[in-house]
Amino acid sequence: MDFSVILPYAHLLPAALKVTIEIGIVGFLLAVLISIIVGSLRSRKLPLIFRVILSVYVEVFRGTPLLVQLFFVYYGLPSLGIKLAPVTAAIITMGLNSGAYLSENVRASILAVDKGQYEAAHMLGYSPLQTNVHIVLPQAMRIAIPSFMNGFSSIVKETSMASVLPVIELTKLGNQVYAKTYHPFEIYILLGVIYFVLTYFLTFLAKWLERRAAVWNQ
Amino acid sequence: MEPVIEVRNVKKSFEGKEVLDGVNLTVEKGDAVAIIGSSGSGKSTLIRCIAGLEDIQSGQLFLKGKEIRDKNETVGKIGMVFQSFNLFPHYSVEDNIARPLITVKKMNPEDARKKARNLLEKVRLSEEASQYPSTLSGGQKQRVAIARALAMDPEILAFDEPTSSLDPELAHEVFSTINELAAEGQTMLIVTHQLNAISHFATRVAFLNDGKIEVEGNCDEVLRRPDNGNLKSFLKMVEFGAI
Predict the structure, then answer these.
(1) What is the pTM of this model?
(2) ipTM given for this complex
């Protein structure tokens, strides 16, 4: 075992880490946005056409492999004239994929908000949109925090799949260093440790968020 | 005097079962009308129909002489107090009252908070202003709910079994607030099981049985000198603690 073989490449790590974190964070924020919109819409009675579109989106992204989705968005979409930079393609795919999963959590969390909250808001004169924004979503988000944080750490780990695209994130860097040094054991151990530290940090963030939100816990 | 609420021959059924079977009721300004009756008599359904939380199948509802055709027409004009409080758990006590004023009535935040604090003083909860509802007792929660409903300056306050989920001493707290409101001439409609509390505030009592108002009159007529058989047996059951 000789970790020193990696040292000559250490200067490449910050850039790769930055790409991983960028895809992870922006992808997650996109997923949160999508999941709130899709989850809110799917928790209500909608015209059939919207229901079908939204459920096709959710089922397709949940029912196909992320890797295939990545290939499709980056290599497939140019046939339709949509050419995306590799990082953008990774962010959009991650966002759409996790957004589909998280939207189901958001929907369930919205349905978990007591019916009396809607009635109270209605009697006070809140419009349906105001009720959602001011009363229901804040409570649903509180319920959904744990699944959001799970989703976040999943996305951070899944960014490794972006290594199949021409983008140098952590895993791709690891593969490249491996190709030059032939020290897979040291390289992939280190890679694992870096991903672990990233997701472990998120676990702490999640606990802190839950504690803060527990202030008004019923 | 113009009635605040007028219910004319209202019918309502759930899945074929008639719950309200031609109800007529008038609430004048300054009236505090108590609706009593056994479980399943349609009391809550009646008040929810009046509040616009349930559709009616036939009949008419009037609010200050104007027919209510759309359930949104009662919004902000009927202040509803629910059995399960329905406070907003993510808002502090003060925000529960102030935020609706800011969001719905577009009141400026300073005025809204001032109004909220005045109302909290009225229900004697000034010290709890910054707490969250989860830290309050049931009686305190219900008084916040009353303050929240009052904040919208409704034509009438409607109470749907406001003390059913409370211990007797906490129910007493809520009823003393209701008594004070009655003394100020607040128009109210109250569905309740708590017959001994009624005589302190109610100007009139209506006995609902099988979806119909069978007896209506002042407290003395209805509670102490009943001549209707169903009412007599209902009062007996309450007396023996069966309801």
Answers:
(1) 0.87
(2) 0.92
